Amino acid sequence: MPVINSIAAMADDLKAWRRHLHAHPELQFDCHQTAAFVVERLREFGITEIHEGIAKTGLVAIIEGQGDGPTIGLRADMDALPMEEITGADYASTIPGKMHACGHDGHTTMLLGAAKYLAETRAFKGRVALIFQPAEEDGGGGEVMVQEGIMDRFGIERVFGIHNVPGAPEGAFFTNDGALLAAVDTFYVDITGKGGHGAYPHECIDPIPPALAMAEAFGSIVSRNHRSLDDLVVSVTQIHSGTASNIIPADAHLNGTVRTFDTAIQDMVERRMGEIVDGIAAAYGVQVKLVYERGYPATINDAAQAAFAIDVARDVVGADAVDPNASREMGAEDFAYMLQARPGAYVFLGAGEGAGLHHPAFDFNEDIAPIGASFFARLVETAQPL
């Protein structure tokens, strides 16, 4: 059962919607115009039950099928990134310093395409809950929507999401039946010494040598403190200190990210970082403050729902274009909170060649929008058949 003909026939509409969203990016929870655009389209489709203002600008729209049955949730993220776009496209971002560099404009478009089809056909029992979420990139909008009770309020029994992947074969689906994306933690280290003239270091307490020692020692957590077969990334991504060549600064700052799938490993990393900074602080005579923040949890698919999603993907694009055993990745995703609340699955959809995610030249491949929309629609019709 390939891409749905009526969704394929929407290609021009899908392109127009996506390009409008791309030209008007919004960040975090401030997706006011994006949400208004989504609501306007949904009303055009004849969908009347639309619940706005969830997680500030998120919304849930309900499509009633034919006859009693469960409710299935389909989620799309709406927010963009704080980046300057360099695509040069006619529909490039009109907002300086903001762009859809992760394809959330495409994800929203795919769910709108599925919504239009499902509202027209209603060839399913029960209900479908269309979840349009803000603040995936920063802020954890998925967690907030769950905390505000969308699963219980709308009786959602299982939930599914899609993310596009540039560089993967166009139109191919891949996922697995367990941990798919990592938990993400962030650490901050503030080092306070005593500044002074660069010619008289003996009168100062230089914060830069301990900062470098900490950055190097953090790397040893991966190489020496955990089992090599367990996935772990510790990356120091920022070091800031100093203002001039002849001044020893009074302070230095480190920042970075930790990615893993195991809470026990997270505990170990946090403990070891504390031990490292305390030891180096004592050795160099500086004051140190470490802040370790737990972020999005690991995105873990329910095995049965992943198998179901894989079967639906095979119906849409053929078995040869579906990989059910994709390796887990060290990226993170706040759809994890929805999967903690309800069984479901997250799948990747290949976007073909092009700039990678979070790159200023990234542009969502519009040719995959009918595929993603068809997948969403078939999930509903297959899960809740007449």
Average pLDDT confidence is 97
- Gap between N and C termini, in Å? 17 Å
Q: Which outline best applies?
A: elongated
- Looking at CATH, the homologous superfamily of the largest domain is Zn peptidases
Q: Which blocks of ≥5 consecutive residues have pLDDT under 50? A: none
- The count of strands amounts to 16
CATH topology of the largest domain: Aminopeptidase
CATH class call of the largest domain: Alpha Beta
Helix content: 25-40%
Give a quick summary of the entry.
This protein has helices at 5-8, 11-23, 32-44, 104-121, 141-147, 150-153, 208-224, 263-284, 303-317, 335-341, 369-383; strands spanning 49-54, 58-64, 71-77, 127-133, 156-165, 173-174, 179-181, 183-192, 196-197, 232-241, 247-248, 251-260, 287-294, 299-300, 322-323, 344-350. It has 386 residues and is an alpha/beta fold.
